[in-house]
Design goal:
The chain is mainly alpha-helical. It has five helices and no strands. Helices cover 81% and strands 0% of the residues.
């Protein structure tokens, strides 16, 4: 192709088609941004999905699409509010869990006798387990030898 050729994507018709598409997206976005919280969250997810290449819009397109910018701003504000709400809930849970751990530590300190009994039980359980294994080994050795001697007699 020579320098005088016109590319289809640069034609006036193609530019007009892109403008109509942008207007359709702007209308859709405006309607979606005026819905309830759940739908606004879904709208934010749709915007974030990458199905619309916002970075391909020209400066002129953006200047002519203030309703689209407003719709995106409403979705962004909603998502930020929801993030802050859930982030705050997580912080509250962390504080609650930390307090419960402190209370548990204090209970252990207050109930030293009970905690001491727990530790003794753990130690005894381990000792009894060692004894059980040792006695099992001794029994199996003696039992096997006794059967071996009976077979050879």
């Amino acid at each position: 192709m020579d320098e005088d050729s016109v590319h289809i994507s640069d034609s006036d018709e193609a530019k007009a088609s892109v403008s109509r598409l942008l207007k359709a997206i702007e209308g859709w976005a405006t309607k979606e941004s005026q819905k309830g919280e759940l739908e606004l969250t879904a709208f934010g997810a749709a915007l974030a999905s990458g199905i619309i290449s916002f970075h391909d819009f020209t400066s002129k397109d953006c200047r002519n699409s203030q309703n689209l910018i407003g719709a995106v701003a409403r979705a962004k504000q909603h998502i930020e509010k929801e993030h802050k709400k859930f982030d705050s809930e997580i912080d509250k849970m962390h504080i609650k869990f930390a307090q419960e751990m402190e209370e548990l530590d204090l209970k252990i300190i207050r109930d030293r006798k009970e905690f001491k009994n727990y530790l003794i039980s753990v130690i005894y359980a381990e000792e009894y387990n060692k004894l059980r294994l040792a006695l099992t080994n001794i029994f199996e050795t003696l039992d096997a030898k006794s059967k071996y001697e009976n077979a050879s007699t």
